[in-house]
C-alpha cells in the first residue's frame, strides 16, 4: 500500500476541512440488489449528506456510455458515470465492462472529475482500471473488498480445475491492485483475516458496511404466529435449501411459516424443493420488496434465519438485528461476528439441517423473557454498526488522518 498523502494533497489532515470530491468505482451498483451494491449506495448517499461532491462510476444497463448525470440514490443526488456493459449470461442480472476497456474509461472519467480521492469497491474490472489510472495521477486510492470465491464460482461455467487456476490468477491480480492503495478495508475482522491469509497482505482494516438504525422499527411484543424470515439473493452459496429442509423437520404443532425475500437464479429450484417438501402452503417467495414493505416484513417476523457460507458481513442480518429479531445463522465467515451464540440467537454448523432445526425450535419455543433478552441483545449488538461510524472512518481514510477507534 502507498505512503500517506503528499504535502500538496488536499486530503492532508492539516488542510482545511473542505468538502472532498470522491469518485467511487463499482462493478455493481443500483439498480442491482446485493450487499456490495447496497453498501456503495449507502456510502455514497451518506457522503452527500455530509456535504461531499460524490461521483460514482458503474456499469450501464445497456452497451452505451451515458454522459455524467444526476441520479437520486437513497434519497440523495449524486453524479453517475455509467459505462457500456454487457450481460454475463450464466448470471440472472450481472453486467460487466469489457476488462480491456476499463482503463480507457477510467482515464476519461478521472480527467473529467479530477477527484481528491478514489474509492474502489472491487478489484475485478472497473476498480482494477480505475486504481491503475488514479495511481499515475497521484490520487489517493482506498479499496474495499466484498469478494469471496463462493460468490462467483457458480457462474464461471468452467470445470473445477480451471476454476482453481482462474482464482489463483485473480487473487494475484487483486494483490497487485491492493498494493497501489492507501488502505484496504473489508466489512469485518474475520473478512480481513481471510483476505490477509488469501493474498498475503497486511493491515487490512475492518470497517462495518453500516446501516441507519433509525430506518427500522423493532417490535418486541409477542408474535401471533411463528414466522421465519430470510432476506437475500436466491443463489447457491446462501444455502436456502438447508433452511427449507430444516423447516420441514420442525414440529408441525409449531405451525411455522417462512418468508423469503429476494430474487436470484435459484428461485425456481427453491420453489420446486418447497413443493417436494410439502411446504408450498407455508413458504412465501416475495421476490424483491420495497424498503417500506421489507421493514414491515422484518417487524412481524419471529426469527431471522441465514444458512449462507459466503458472508463477508451480511447487511440483511444487521437489518434484522436493528428490527429486534433473534438470529439463527451458520457458523461461517463473518456471521459469528454478528450472531453471538446464546445471546442474540444461535449458530449452527454450516449445512447441518438437524442442528439448524434445533436452533430454530429453541428460538420459537423460548419463554417471553428469554425472547425479549435475545431481541434486546440484537438491538444492543447492532449499535456498533451505525452508518455514522462507518462514514467517520472512511472520511478519515480519505483525508489521510488517523482513523477513529
From TrEMBL:
Gene3D superfamilies: Glycogen Phosphorylase B. Residues 222-377 form the Glycosyl transferase family domain. Keywords: Glycosyltransferase, Transferase. Residues 33-213 form the Glycosyltransferase subfamily 4-like N-terminal domain. GO terms for molecular function: glycosyltransferase activity. InterPro entries: Glyco_trans_1, Glyco_trans_4-like_N, Glycosyltransferase_grp1. The keyword Hydrolase does not apply. Signal peptide: none annotated. Pfam families: Glyco_transf_4, Glycos_transf_1. PANTHER family: SULFOQUINOVOSYL TRANSFERASE SQD2. This is D-inositol 3-phosphate glycosyltransferase. It comes from Microbacterium invictum.
Amino acid at each position: 500500500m502507498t505512503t500517506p498523502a503528499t504535502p500538496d494533497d488536499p486530503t492532508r489532515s492539516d488542510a482545511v476541512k473542505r468538502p472532498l470530491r470522491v469518485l467511487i468505482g463499482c462493478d455493481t451498483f443500483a439498480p442491482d440488489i446485493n450487499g456490495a451494491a447496497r453498501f456503495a449506495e449507502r456510502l455514497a448517499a451518506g457522503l452527500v449528506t455530509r456535504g461531499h461532491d460524490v461521483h460514482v462510476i458503474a456499469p450501464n444497463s445497456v452497451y452505451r456510455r451515458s454522459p455524467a448525470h444526476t441520479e437520486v440514490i437513497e434519497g440523495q443526488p449524486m453524479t453517475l458515470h455509467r459505462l457500456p456493459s454487457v450481460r454475463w449470461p450464466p448470471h440472472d442480472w450481472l453486467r460487466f465492462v469489457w476488462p480491456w476497456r476499463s482503463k480507457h474509461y477510467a482515464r476519461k472519467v478521472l480527467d473529467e472529475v479530477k477527484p481528491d480521492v478514489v474509492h474502489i469497491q472491487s478489484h475485478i474490472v472497473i476498480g482494477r482500471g480505475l486504481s491503475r489510472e488514479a495511481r499515475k495521477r497521484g490520487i489517493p486510492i482506498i479499496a474495499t473488498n466484498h469478494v469471496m470465491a463462493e460468490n462467483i464460482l457458480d457462474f464461471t461455467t468452467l470445470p473445477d480445475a480451471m476454476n482453481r487456476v482462474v482464482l489463483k490468477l485473480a487473487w494475484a491480480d487483486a494483490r497487485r491492485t491492493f498494493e497501489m492503495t492507501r488502505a484496504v478495508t473489508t466489512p469485518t475482522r474475520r473478512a480481513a483475516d481471510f483476505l490477509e491469509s488469501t493474498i498475503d497482505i497486511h493491515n487490512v482494516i475492518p470497517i462495518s458496511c453500516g446501516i441507519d438504525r433509525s430506518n427500522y422499527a423493532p417490535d418486541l411484543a409477542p408474535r401471533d404466529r411463528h414466522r421465519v424470515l430470510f432476506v437475500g439473493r436466491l443463489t447457491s452459496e446462501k444455502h436456502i435449501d438447508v433452511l427449507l429442509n430444516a423447516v420441514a423437520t420442525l414440529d408441525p404443532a409449531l405451525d411455522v411459516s417462512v418468508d423469503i425475500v429476494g430474487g436470484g437464479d435459484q428461485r425456481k429450484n427453491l420453489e420446486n424443493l418447497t413443493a417436494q417438501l410439502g411446504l408450498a402452503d407455508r413458504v412465501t417467495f416475495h421476490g424483491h420488496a420495497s424498503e417500506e414493505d421489507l421493514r414491515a416484513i422484518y417487524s412481524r417476523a419471529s426469527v431471522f434465519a441465514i444458512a449462507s457460507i459466503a458472508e463477508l458481513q451480511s447487511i440483511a442480518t444487521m437489518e434484522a438485528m436493528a428490527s429486534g429479531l433473534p438470529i439463527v445463522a451458520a457458523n461461517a465467515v463473518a456471521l459469528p461476528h454478528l450472531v453471538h451464540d446464546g445471546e442474540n440467537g444461535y449458530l449452527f454448523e454450516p449445512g447441518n439441517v438437524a442442528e439448524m432445526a434445533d436452533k430454530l425450535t429453541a428460538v420459537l419455543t423460548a419463554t417471553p423473557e428469554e425472547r425479549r433478552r435475545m431481541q434486546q441483545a440484537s438491538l444492543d449488538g447492532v449499535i456498533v454498526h451505525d452508518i455514522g461510524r462507518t462514514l467517520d472512518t472512511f472520511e478519515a481514510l480519505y483525508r489521510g488522518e488517523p482513523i477513529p477507534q
